[in-house]
Amino acid sequence: MAHNIARKQALTYLLGVCVPSSKQNAAKIRIQRADFDSYLSMYFTKYEFIYATDPQKLCKTGDTVLIQSLPQKLTRLITHKVVDVIYPLGDITDPITGKKVVVGRYREHIEEDAKLFGDLKSMYKYDEAPERGITAGKRDFTDKKTYIKYSDDPKDYDPYAVNP
């Protein structure tokens, strides 16, 4: 009788960073957790890797994404799905004000300081920067199909192969 009772499973949301993966239609997400050491009474950073289904290919390597647990496992490894890309790699936007942020300061404040004290030659020009995705096909191969390479033969060079 007990096995016929339907259990409610809480759908959990997690925030993580997309890392390179060899699985098709799935993203490998790095989740940061705090691990408590009772001897030192301190929390330490611990990373956990989760595979999430991404059929629309929303996320690319380096994006901060929101994932949700699936009610049932899709496969043995794929237990979550990608809900949304929170921050694409690169420019970070403050969710409250909607302004662009660099490290811990608003970009507008950095530009105002540059006007007051003079521009540096080494200062990065955000207005002249190309859009993300300009290196697709040249240096960025996240849109190509990859596979796991099991033998390391120097004659057989394939840039789309991933070493296990």
TrEMBL record:
GO cellular component terms, A-Z: mitochondrial small ribosomal subunit
Superkingdom assignment: Eukaryota
GO BP terms, alphabetized: mitochondrial translation
InterPro entries the UniProt entry points to: NA-bd_OB-fold (IPR012340), Ribosomal_uS17m_metazoa (IPR039193)
Single annotated GO MF: structural constituent of ribosome
PANTHER family: 28S RIBOSOMAL PROTEIN S17, MITOCHONDRIAL, SMALL RIBOSOMAL SUBUNIT PROTEIN US17M
Protein name: Mitochondrial ribosomal protein S17
Species of origin: Tetragonisca angustula
